[in-house]
Design goal:
CATH class of the largest domain: Alpha Beta
Strand order of the largest sheet: 3-2-1-4-8
CATH architecture of the largest domain: 2-Layer Sandwich
Mean pLDDT: 78
Radius of gyration: 20 Å
Helix content: 25-40%
Shape: globular
Number of helices: 9
Bound molecules: zinc ion
Structural class: alpha/beta
Distance between the termini: 64 Å
């Protein structure tokens, strides 16, 4: 029997999205649930599996499916396990054989990998990285993930966890504690919860100095990156500072990443902007300007940031806006560099 479909499942720290996809990459059916704060993996699967089975039935039954592909934080492609994922209670400090659990629940073979690696493969097959052989995929969300592609292959390394760039140390002096247990990691400053933490710190400081900010009207313990985003769009200076600081540290990190595979050959850096429904546009400008400045403006035109085009999330208009802005800035910066 012809098996025309696969099921894709993207497990994020906050949301889980899934869809039935055909060989051309068209998403035929899709769904979404909250990843939730379940104590145990079996409880999370009990919430997810009925939704997957419903879509499977809608598409004609499990006989129509080649397989299920799952992208998950700390997903191990070699073993099909989710290992010590700090942002999900049910996978924190434990190893969950999730691919096997999904196969048991659906009757369909399942493979699993790190979410950023899955995003890299998706973009390479159907999206903005189509035809590219060397690039890094960065995912910004509840954590900061990355998937490195060299010679058209995702790099998995010795244990399946190669290329976790969210945990490069950016601040060695008094660095923030990261979910991985170390101090000063990029993720401790640039994930969505880390942005909220920065906002809390800056708001407390602003209060002490007698400065006004829209953020002061929120319950600071419950402040989210979405709140900061909304305040920034309303022109709040403290909220804009949060984006500036986050953009700067991401820019610092990104400036180093292309060197992994020879910055002047054919590297492209991708960013998966997903930590707020839309994103405060100047954030992106700050990020890329810092990256360019630190790289001494010697980057080749093909080195840049590209918001992704493929995925189960819908982020079209902002993505288009950011894409145009990014390209303009890169072009202007390179022109300036040439005349100096
Ligand atoms: Zn870390």
């Amino acid at each position: 029997m012809v098996k025309p479909y696969v099921m894709g499942v993207d497990i994020g720290g906050t949301n889980t999205v899934f869809g039935v996809v055909d060989a051309r990459g068209e998403i035929l059916y899709r769904g979404e649930i909250k990843t939730g704060n379940y104590e145990e993996a079996k409880d999370y699967l009990a919430a997810l599996a009925p939704h997957l089975n419903e879509l499977i039935e809608k598409a004609g039954g499990k006989e129509k499916f080649n397989g299920i592909g799952i992208g998950a934080p700390n997903g191990n492609f070699y073993t099909g396990t989710i290992e010590n994922a700090p942002n999900m209670k049910w996978a924190k400090g434990t190893i969950v054989p999730f691919a096997k659990m999904v196969t048991d629940a659906t009757g369909i073979p399942c493979v699993l990998t790190n979410d950023a690696n899955a995003a890299a493969m998706g973009e390479m097959t159907y999206g903005v990285a189509k035809g590219m052989k060397h690039f890094i995929m960065i995912t910004l969300g509840t954590g900061v993930g990355s998937g490195i592609v060299i010679d058209g292959k995702v790099v998995y390394g010795n244990d399946g966890f190669a290329g976790e760039l969210g945990h490069v140390i950016m601040r060695r002096q008094n660095g923030r504690i990261c979910g991985c247990g170390r101090r000063g990691c990029l993720e401790a400053y640039a994930s969505a919860p880390s942005m909220a933490l920065t906002a809390r710190e800056l708001t407390e400081h602003a209060k002490e100095k007698g400065k006004t900010t829209l953020l002061a009207s929120y319950d600071l313990d419950k402040l989210t990156s979405k709140d900061v985003h909304d305040a920034a769009l309303q022109g709040d200076e403290i909220a804009k500072d949060v984006f500036r600081l986050t953009g700067e540290i991401l820019g610092e990190a990104f400036a180093d990443f292309p060197d992994f595979f020879g910055a002047l050959l054919a590297p492209v850096l991708l960013v998966f902007l997903d930590f707020v429904p839309t994103i405060f546009p100047p954030f992106y400008l700050i990020l890329i300007m810092v990256m360019l400045i630190i790289s001494y403006l010697v980057l080749e035109p093909q080195v840049g940031l590209e918001p992704t085009t493929y995925g189960l999330q819908n982020r079209c208009s902002t993505t288009e806006l950011l894409r145009r802005t990014t390209k303009t800035i890169i072009a202007e910066s390179l022109n300036k560099a040439k005349c100096c």
